[in-house]
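User: Sequence recovery, please. Input:
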């Protein structure tokens, strides 16, 4: 039944495309024959297929089909009248007018940037994983070593749906889901939307995109983490970009680091730079060695395996890469802004 309904919709769509191309009586007749010819018309033939439906389904689909037939007949009649009407002078085509350009849709700049990130990691042998945007407290926090009432939870302003369900605040729960299903070696990135209870301002949004990564295998060390992330940042920004690692804290990694790059706007030369606050560095990534407790939560033996994880905000990084002062520009849907990216 779904199939037949789908076909009815499909014919309505193609008919609408065909009818606007009608130029004369002949092409109008061709369209009539194609859809409604008594023996071979594609809509006529659908009536035969009604027989194959159950008696409960038949009336509803039959009604849809009759509506389509009536619609086609009425439209054909309209266009016929239109064709027979003598052309008014005002309707004549003025060949001196400039042409009207059609606007084509294009991927959003954030999606394009995310694909750039994905391509770098795919080239390094990572694969892409995805997971649900509505998560349980367990996957979003507990399995990642945030026990209930742990103060670190306060850093993640969470939008709860009920006591147990929430909008994921990071893509990290997918790391847990993958480790539960699969044994090492694991080398994945996880792109996706995340949500936090934030008031939008130039550097915060309640919904944004993240890409996280996870590598688990025998003998993975901090040197692997550093090498991978430095390679990634050089490919994304430039070979010469300055990078630094700072000690930090995340409940799910130990030791943890934040990764900064030199300010892409002032290169550390403007003491009043609005992007880096005059410090010359901007924070790009959070990273660290996976905490043994996280491995225990998913039954991976931390004595045998080690790994590293990292994450970055796509919108935030795009802002630095394109020198955009306000992250909200990405979502205001001003075509003058957005088109600059699809032209690339
Ligand atoms: Zn700066």
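Assistant: Recovered sequence (344 residues):
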């Amino acid at each position: 039944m779904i199939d037949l309904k789908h076909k009815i919709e499909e014919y309505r769509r193609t008919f609408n495309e065909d009818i606007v191309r009608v130029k004369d009586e002949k092409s109008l007749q061709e369209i009539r024959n194609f859809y409604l010819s008594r023996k071979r018309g594609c809509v006529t033939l659908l009536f035969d297929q009604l027989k194959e439906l159950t008696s409960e389904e038949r009336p509803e689909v039959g009604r849809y089909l009759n509506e389509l037939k009536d619609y086609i007949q009425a439209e054909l009649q309209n266009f016929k009248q239109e064709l027979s009407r003598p052309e008014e002078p005002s309707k004549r085509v003025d060949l001196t007018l400039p042409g009207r350009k059609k606007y084509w849709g294009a991927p959003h700049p954030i999606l394009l940037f995310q694909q750039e990130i994905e391509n770098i990691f795919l080239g390094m042998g990572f694969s892409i994983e995805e997971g649900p945007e509505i998560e349980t407290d367990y996957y979003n926090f507990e399995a990642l070593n945030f026990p209930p009432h742990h103060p670190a939870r306060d850093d993640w302003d969470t939008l709860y749906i009920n006591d147990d369900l929430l909008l994921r605040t990071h893509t990290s729960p997918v790391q847990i889901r993958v480790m539960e299903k699969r044994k090492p070696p694991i080398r994945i990135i996880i792109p996706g939307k995340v949500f936090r209870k934030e008031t939008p301002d130039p550097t915060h949004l309640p919904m944004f995109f993240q890409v996280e990564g996870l590598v688990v295998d025998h003998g993975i060390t901090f040197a692997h983490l550093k090498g991978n992330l430095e390679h990634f940042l050089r490919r994304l920004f430039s070979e010469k970009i300055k990078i630094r690692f700072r000690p930090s804290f995340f409940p799910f990694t130990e030791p943890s680091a934040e990764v900064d790059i030199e300010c892409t706007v002032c290169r550390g030369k403007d003491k009043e730079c609005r992007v880096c606050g005059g410090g010359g560095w901007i924070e790009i990534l959070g990273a660290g060695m996976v905490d043994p407790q996280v491995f225990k939560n998913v039954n991976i033996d931390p004595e045998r395996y080690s790994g590293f994880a990292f994450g970055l905000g796509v919108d935030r990084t795009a802002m630095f890469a394109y020198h955009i002062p306000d992250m909200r520009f990405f979502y205001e849907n001003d075509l003058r802004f957005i088109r600059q990216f699809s032209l690339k």
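The mean pLDDT is 88.
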